[in-house]
Structure formats: C-alpha cells, structure tokens
Design a protein that fits this description.
Length: 97
C-alpha cells in the first residue's frame, strides 16, 4: 500500500490554516452570529488538527500495523473535515447569491 501520511499531513495543516483564517475573518467582520459558518469551520479545525496528529503518528510509527491504522484514521478525519469545509463554502455561496 502506498504511504500517504505525508500528503495527509501537508494538506491537513494547510487546510487547518485556511479554516482558522475563515474563523478569524468572521470574527473580525462580526458575521459569525448570523450564520453557522464559524461552527462548521471550527469543527473542520478540530478534525484537521486531529488528522495532522494521526498522520504524524503514522509517519513516526515503527510498527507497520500501527502505521496503517493511524494513516486510516487520519484519512477519515481529513475526509470529514473536508466535508465541513465544503458545507462552509456552500453556506457562503448561498448567502452571497
């Protein structure tokens, strides 16, 4: 099986920063009270951070079985966080239109 922990770590950390940027911009513009956008971005931040953690553990793991398990967990957490970001983008799109 191809190791993808490094890719997950890179993408998760970048999207974690993007999610934090969304939350910060919503707080600065005081829009966060009107939508659920900051909640979705906050949940995405938690999942991206956990995905980073598990992908790092997979990279550092000595056991092949544990590495595969950590990588799978990181992969699913990344997918859930990505879904939260997609929901946030849909909310922004509907709000603008």
């Amino acid at each position: 099986m191809e190791k993808k922990s490094g890719h997950i770590l890179n993408a998760s950390s970048n999207l974690l920063g993007f999610s934090l940027l969304i939350i910060t911009s919503l707080k600065i513009t005081k829009i966060s009270g009107n939508t659920h956008l900051d909640e979705f971005a906050g949940v995405a931040c938690i999942f991206f951070a956990c995905s980073c953690f598990f992908s790092f553990l997979a990279i550092r793991s000595k056991s092949e079985k544990r590495e595969t398990r950590f990588e799978t967990i990181a992969d699913y957490l990344f997918l859930i966080a990505l879904f939260c970001i997609v929901l946030a983008v849909i909310i922004v799109t509907v709000r603008i239109i």
